[in-house]
Design goal:
single chain, 198 residues, alpha+beta, Beta-Lactamase, five-stranded antiparallel beta sheet, two-stranded antiparallel ribbon, 5 helices, 20% strand, globular, Longin-like_dom_sf, Sedlin
């Protein structure tokens, strides 16, 4: 019985785009000199992602998170993924003669998404210098009390509308991920494992 050889996936780049399609994170597995080239190629996937989302979603059924193979260009294949918060991820791998399974690509996206969630929900995360808390609303002084059935006066304090520390994906700044050592090391580690160097 002959042993099966596993061909490693050769990752070339990984990009995270905000819901407004601005770049939040670009990583080139082939070296920092290719980062701009990979950014432009993965940004070309935005139109395909938008089209795929429109075609696969209805008001009752949101689009699937894994968007599949978006396109092939030069010597790379580009795959897309959208999180529930509408962050878009684009992964490119080198085209090889081996068959690439969707389950493998989904596993990569899920592990990167898990890493992103771990980093962004860490309560001990050192906040970057670009983080600025929003002003909380002031207490309402002259609020009229509510009178109950037994003539008790009940003051209902106004529910604050401020989301002081609640940030959505549109509030994420690109330097938050770029300056996160844990996120960068995690991405590098995933790349090394899949490229057969780990």
């Amino acid at each position: 019985m002959e042993a099966r050889t596993i061909n490693p996936l050769h990752l070339t780049s990984f990009t995270i785009l905000s819901p407004t399609n601005s770049p939040l994170y670009v990583h080139s597995f082939t070296g920092p000199q290719d980062e701009l080239r990979h950014y432009h190629l993965s940004h070309a996937a935005v139109d395909v992602i938008e089209e795929r989302i429109v075609m696969t979603s209805t008001p009752n059924k949101p689009a699937e998170s894994y968007l599949g193979l978006l396109f092939c260009m030069e010597d790379m294949a580009f795959y897309g993924f959208q999180t529930t918060t509408k962050l878009r991820m684009v992964l490119s791998i080198a085209l090889v003669d081996a068959m690439v399974k969707d389950a493998d690509i989904v596993a990569i996206f899920r592990s990167i998404h898990n890493l992103l969630l771990t980093i962004s929900t860490n309560p001990f995360l050192s906040l970057p210098s670009t983080f600025h808390a929003k002003q909380s609303i002031e207490h309402v002084e002259n609020q009229q009390p509510v009178i109950s059935n037994n003539d008790e006066r009940i003051n209902n304090s106004k529910i604050p509308e401020s989301r002081m520390f609640a940030f959505g994906p549109e509030d994420i700044k690109n330097d938050w991920l770029k300056n996160s050592q844990k996120f960068n090391k995690g991405i590098e580690r995933i790349g090394e494992m899949l490229n057969g160097r780990a």
